[in-house]
Amino acid sequence: MHAIALCCAIFELSCAIYVYLHNRYNREYMTTVKAFIRTGKKDKEVNVRFRLSDGRNVQLFHKSDIMVSPTLWDAKTEKYKAKSIIKLDIRTSFNTSIEERKNLILSIYGSNKELTSEKLEILIDQHLHPEKYNISSEEESMCSMFQRYVDGWLNAGVIGPGRKKHYDVVIRELTRFLIINGIDGLPVNEFNKEHILNFRDFLRKEYTLVEKFPELYAEMNKRNIPSKERSQNTIAEKLLLLQAFMVELESNDVIPVSPFRKIGKEKESIMKQQYDEPFFLTKTEFNEVVHKECPETLQRVKDVFVVQCCFGCRIGDFRRFTFDNISIEEGIPYIHYLPQKTHKDGLIRTEIKTPIIRIAYDIIMKYKGRLPSNALLPYYPDGNGETGYNYQIKKLLEYCEISRKVAMFSAALETNEYKSIYEIASSKLARKTHVDLMNKVQIDKYAAGLHAKGSGAVDRYTGLGIKERFILMCAAFGCNQYEVDDDLSVME
Prior knowledge:
By secondary structure, the chain is of the alpha+beta class. The chain contains 16 helices and 10 strands.
């Protein structure tokens, strides 16, 4: 008993030491900006003040011109109180102004660690009111211009909503990079090769900066906050998006030449993407999923996933399908749509047509007339949380015991790791499974209409009609052929 008591005491002491050291680390190494007010009369507006802390030895203060009533201020969230009755646009504008001022303070401090509170006030005022100091109005910042271009691409139909989200993420990451390095507001003509290389390093190690600059991540969804080193492929994809913006600026004569052109040999290494051997469900595994009796909690994802395997389309296109996307030719129902993803030389304008085999038909018809907006299936929204599509696919395949090991290269270990398919499955698995099943019956990869003519992802395009494609798909998936009438009812 004495030994147990001693062990417990040692454990409690260890925990106390850990908490002490952790808190001490946070105090000494975190740069934070806190918004607060000095309360006076409750019915009189007061200035929002800011305090920058960097460890225990640095405390800088700023009295802003942002006004707020003490009765509406939430000291904990540093915003308007959630239950206060305020118009949405006013609330949004106020809360945004608080975050923008915090970011400005962080940026100014990042470029000059020897600041005093008095100097900080002057630099903030110079930034907000350059006309008072005979400073010419600032050029449009790079991030602001980047966002303007991306919004314009979306409005012009050059990119789809899904692609825009990827650009938006990169813009936010670039903004954090510039703030942390004290160059927030950098104009695009000053962005150079060194910035690109430093941004690459930032993307890799950003997870190590979260505790140092918590204010920059306070508004982020917890699962989106960087928690580990990004992979080379992820970094390369982000740099490719930034490069696309720079190429656009060069072609529009906004800048003389893209800084990516000046990277030279280094470009190959920082932009290189490495891909694992593609993995997919075998026909046997696919049939196990199709015929597996699932609990109600997994029935929805089973229906959606099986149909996506039958269609083989990208998730961005798939979740847009309604019954209006179904047509009939010679008694054969098929799905038709314009793919969202852009072709390398412009938008793909050729409609894709994919026959609906019986497995997919039986599932789809269960939902006819039961879903909002005439949706084809009960799709999952964006995201990969516990209610997201990718997460649910993993749970489905785990339940169906699809545990075959596949190789995945580990950059950290510099060798392959082997994981069960259900651990790494996503919506892309449905597309790969479709292609593989079609290949197994010696069909051209995209004869089923998976890609439109001219797509760079196609080896060659065959001129098969709907009926020929339908016959081949039925053979690939092991389905019986069938016909429907104009009401989509099966004709016996």
